[in-house]
Structure formats: C-alpha cells, structure tokens
Design a protein that fits this description.
The complex is a heterodimer of chains A (395) and B (209). With 395 residues, chain A is of the alpha/beta class. Chain A contains 13 helices and 18 strands. In chain A, β11, α6 and β12 form a beta-alpha-beta unit. Chain A starts with a strand and ends in a 7-residue tail after the last strand. In chain B, the strands form 2 sheets. Chain B has a 7-stranded antiparallel sheet with strand order 3-9-8-7-6-5-4, with helices on both faces. Chain B has a two-stranded antiparallel ribbon with strand order 1-2. The chains are: A alpha/beta (395), B alpha+beta (209).
C-alpha cells in the first residue's frame, strides 16, 4: 500500500510499504477514506518529538471502511467508522473510569519503558505518534491496523459525509474536553489561547456549556475571523497586549477560565520564548511555553486553567507562585476520545456542532508531503488539510 | 519442604546489627545490599544473589491469575525471553530461555512452596546455567482493583565469556524484563491478547526473535 512516512525534520514521503494484517483477535483493518494532518503532526514534522524512527507511518486522525476483522472484533465488514487516536483496551482500571488516554494496555509492553522513565507511568498507545506512544503505524495511508477495534471505532450511519465526522477522531473531542476541563459555569468569561482547530472547537464547546463570553487570542487574522464567526471576541497579540487587554475586557477581574490550545510550539518573540528557543535548540529544555504562562497569570483568582495543548518535556520559569497564590485549578491531559464519541456524533447529526468549516484543503494521499509543507508554512490560510487516498491526482 | 508459609517481613536483622527498624517499602526497592539477604531469607530455598522484582496490578480475580501462572506451560505466552517451558511433573519444569547470539540457557526448576491463590515459590536445581529462585505473590488489590502480582527474583549472573553474553539479558536488564513480562501478563489477563504495534505477521515474528 501507499503511506506517508517520516524520515526526519521536514522530510516526509509517500512510500510503498507492506499492507497491514490482522495480528490479534480484537484487530480490524480499515481502508482509509479520509485522514487529516493534525497540528500535533507538525510537532513531529519539526522534529520536536523524540523516539521517531525513519519510515514511521504518520497520521492519527482518520476514518474509513472496515475491510477485515479479527475473531473478537465487534465490527462488521463494510461498516464506516471513525477511529479515535488513543488506543485503549476497555478493560483496565483506567478504561473503567473512562480515562482512555491513560489505558494501561494499549501501549505495547516494551514501548511503555520510555514514558515510564519520562513521566513516571506509561500512557496509552497512540496511532502514528512516535515509539514512546507505541510505535503504531498511523492512518495517513491506504490501510491501517486498528487494535482493540471493539472499543475504539465508532460506526457512522449511512448518509453522513466523511467531512462532517472525521474530526471525531481527535480535535473535536479534544476541544470539547478542553472546555469540560475548564469547568465552565453559566455567566463565565472564557479565554482561549490559539485559534487552531482545537481552540475553535473549544470555543464552540464553551458556548454550548453555558459560557457568556469567549475571548479568543491568536495572531493569524483568518483564524481570529473564524473565532468571531462562532461568537468569540478577539485579541490579536500582535496588535494588543494580551494580559492588559484581558484585564480591561473583564473589568479588571481576569477570565474565569483559561484554555491553552497552543502548546509546545508557541509562536511569538517574547523574551521567555526566545530563551526557550535557545534552550530547545541546545537540548536544555524541550518545550516553549509562553501561552500556558500567560494563561496562568491572566486567570482570575480561584479560576480554572485547562491545557489541551501538547507538552512533552520539562520546563522552567513556570509561574507556580501565581498558580498557588491565586488558588487556580489546572486540568489537562490527552483526550479520552472514546468517552465523548456518542454524544458528539449526536451533536453533529443534530447540527449543533459544525466541523466542515475548518477544512481548507483536500488532497490525494500522494500529495501529503505538499500538504505538510503548506500547513506548516501558511497557517493563516491553511486551517486543515484532509487527505483522501481515493482522490485521484488529477482531481 | 517447609510447611509454614514464608512471610514477607518489613523489618529484618541486618548483618552485624541488632534488629533494625525498616520501612514498609518492598526489599526490591532497597538502597542497601542487605536487602538481598533479607529477600533470600523469605525464600524456602534460595539460589542467586542478585535481587530484582516488580509489582503490577491486574483487574482480574486472584484465583484466576494464580491458576494461569501455575500452569507453567502458559508462561511462554508473555515471557518474551522464554523459548519454552516443559512441565515434567506437578513440581518440576524444564526452562529453555533465549540468550544473545542465538544461544539458549536451560535449567530445571522445582516448586519449593505453594499456597493456592496466593504464592508460588521456585528454585533452580543443581547444574542450572543460571541459578535462580524467586516467588510470585498474588494479593487482593485495594479498592476492588483486582490483584497485585509481585515477582521477586534472585539469580546468579553467570561469569566467563559466555556469561558475559548471557549477562546482556540477565545482568543488565532483569528488572526491565520482569517489568515487561508482568505488563504482558496483565495485557493477556485483562484483554485476552498481548498488545503489539507490528503491522504485519513478518514484523511480529521478527520482534519476538
């Protein structure tokens, strides 16, 4: 089959590789119909994530048709499914608590060592996202092997277009969980750093959860426009001072809840960010973290900070004093995708949530490398690239 | 064979001293070498002087886990270094374990102590390539979380040129191996399968080499 493979920093290629096979009784093989490039794929593209190997197949946002099933899969051939990016067994203690991204078993035993050393305990497996999270082949390919297929994939009813449901695989539930972690109360003002897909979905989710105002922070005009379309007020940090603007816009109180949807590749030439860049390039520190610092400092006393953004390493200059003195609550984590799927699928079917606005480009799989470059270089115009293995090059 | 159950003590007589108060942490996590001696005292018959051990919590009943483990022929399903285990009789088994450079090491093991649903202790017999002994404890986990399974292993890293090769497996990473084997045991018991990220049967076979 053809698949998008990683070969190093800014080097991804479409290669011919062996087709996946059923290896365990609960496996299924999915023929991919749509697969997106995620903002977190850019972390891989930029070489920020350790434990990548040349030839790794990327992609953790995908859906398709069931073409083969193991003896214990509950799926049926021909069903259309969206597959969560987290690989969870459904039977361990954490899955029992719906903490699917903390599944004990989804990550193969040998691969768990890395996260055990780095984080104290290993996390679940993820598709196409380094060997620390399992070394699983991703879905930017013609076919993918899906383990524990009786737990993860959600069956999509006929007549619903791929573009409407594809983002159930990661960014929609991630935006939703971000808003849930912000523990929004009626009347709240919520500030969202980053108007990428997760930020935009968390804006929609925050309003659905009862937020009275949402303030969106970014520097890409097009992304801020999209945020405005969903009812958010905007701060362009290239035009205005973010902390001062937030304080003035909230009557000197600060936002009740702050959501950091930026993560480890925060843009912006702030002093602490420049120091982080120097440290990152000299391997002294791995994460550039301006947005989370600002979120903690801006948040109102007793407020809540939600961090869906991806961080992988150790940081310094973290405003621990502000977190403590103001009595903030910080909630974060990889998304427990499986937990939100039925509810969010219903919200899509009932037209309460629209996700199709996000897709700016549809490309055949063969053009995936161009898709990565485009998404990386032109983040203002390129909001989301969806790869369609079925799409012909001429289209 | 002793009739009395060896019990895990949390304090022990350290060499040359009187009773010394000891914390509640398992001996396998001790910073001092006296722990080896203390761990050895907890085995009916001990072979080996390097201590290693790990605990894992498995969301299944104690009796079920014990029964699976007690059928030693099952162990090769999740112990990646074990090529095969021949069950000779109720107490005796023969182990063939992979070593680097395509070699194998072998030994006979005897069950030295057994409490159904709770404990299996073993020791290698004379002539073992890698003298070893240990115990597997099955205890009810708190909060209804299933069972904690603790493997405590004492072994002799072999010497010599051949030994150095073997040491790659046995000396440097026994704790890591125990940890990985226990994770696979947990996966198998909780999910019915051992997780793999291989994409093809050929890759999977290569990984197990």
């Amino acid at each position: 089959m053809r698949a998008l493979t990683w070969h190093g920093k800014h080097d991804v290629r479409v290669d011919t590789v062996d087709d996946p096979e059923i290896l365990n009784p609960r496996d299924a093989i999915i023929k991919i119909t749509s697969t997106a490039i995620c903002g977190s794929d850019l972390h891989l593209y930029d070489g920020y994530i350790p434990t990548m190997k040349a030839g790794d197949i990327l992609g953790h946002e995908f859906m398709g048709e069931v073409v083969e099933i193991g003896a214990n899969s509950t799926l049926k051939k021909g069903q259309r499914v969206v597959v969560p990016f987290t690989i969870a067994c459904g039977q361990c203690f954490h899955c029992g608590k719906q903490q699917y991204s903390a599944c004990d078993n989804g990550n193969p035993a040998d691969n768990q060592d890395i996260a055990q050393e780095l984080y104290g305990q290993p996390m679940s497996g993820l598709f196409g996202y380094s060997h620390m999270t399992g070394g699983y082949a991703g879905g930017q390919a013609e076919y993918v092997r899906v383990p524990y297929s009786d737990v993860g994939p959600i069956v999509i009813p006929d007549g619903i277009d791929d573009d409407k449901v594809l983002f159930l695989s990661d960014i929609l539930p991630t935006g939703w969980q971000a808003a849930e972690n912000a523990q929004i109360e009626p009347g709240d003002t919520v500030a969202v750093w980053g108007c990428g897909p997760v930020g935009l979905f968390s804006i929609q989710s925050a309003f659905l959860m009862g937020a009275e105002r949402v303030i969106a922070i970014d520097h890409f005009p097009h992304r801020l426009e999209l945020a405005k379309k969903f009812g958010a007020e905007t701060i362009n940090y290239k035009e205005s001072k973010t902390y001062e603007a937030l304080m003035e816009m909230t009557g000197g109180i600060g936002p009740d809840a702050c959501i950091d949807a930026v993560g480890l590749e925060a843009h912006g030439l702030f002093v602490d960010n420049v120091v982080d860049q120097i440290k990152a390039s000299t391997f002294l520190g791995t994460d550039r973290t301006h947005s989370i610092r600002q979120a903690i400092v801006a948040c109102r006393k007793g407020g809540r900070v939600s961090m869906p953004a991806v961080y992988g390493g150790i940081v310094d200059k973290f405003p621990l004093g502000a977190l403590m003195e103001k009595g903030l609550t910080l909630k974060t984590g990889q998304t427990n995708v499986q937990r939100y799927l039925p509810g969010l699928l219903n919200a899509i079917i009932e037209d309460k949530i629209d996700t199709t606005f996000l897709i700016s480009h549809r490309l055949p799989l063969e053009q995936a490398p161009e898709g990565y470059k485009m998404f990386h270089d032109k983040q203002n115009e390129v909001t989301k690239v969806v790869l369609k293995p079925g799409l012909s090059l001429a289209a | 064979m002793a009739d009395e159950t060896p019990t895990i003590s949390t304090s022990y007589r350290s060499k040359g001293n009187d009773f010394e108060a000891r914390d509640d942490a398992p001996l396998t996590t001790a910073k001092d070498s006296d722990a080896v001696e203390a761990a050895a005292e907890q085995l009916v018959e001990h072979k080996g002087d390097t201590l290693s051990g790990k605990t894992v919590t498995i969301n299944r009943p104690r009796e079920e886990l014990f029964a699976y483990w007690r059928d030693f022929a099952n162990l090769a399903a999740f112990m990646d270094n074990v090529e095969r285990i021949d069950v000779l009789d109720d107490k005796h088994s023969h182990w063939v374990v992979l070593a680097p450079a395509g070699r194998t090491v072998e030994w006979d093991a005897i069950v030295t102590e057994e409490i159904p649903g709770e404990l299996i202790a073993w020791a290698s017999t004379e002539g073992a390539d890698v003298p070893n002994s240990g115990r597997i404890d099955f205890r009810d986990a708190t909060g209804g979380r299933g069972t904690t399974v603790t493997a405590t292993i004492l072994y002799d890293p072999p010497a010599g040129v051949v030994g150095k090769l073997i040491a790659k497996v046995f000396q440097r990473e026994p704790a890591i191996q125990a940890r990985r084997d226990l994770r696979r045991f947990k996966q198998l018991m909780e999910t019915g399968e051992v997780s793999t990220s291989s994409r093809t049967r050929a890759q999977l076979a290569k990984e197990k080499e």
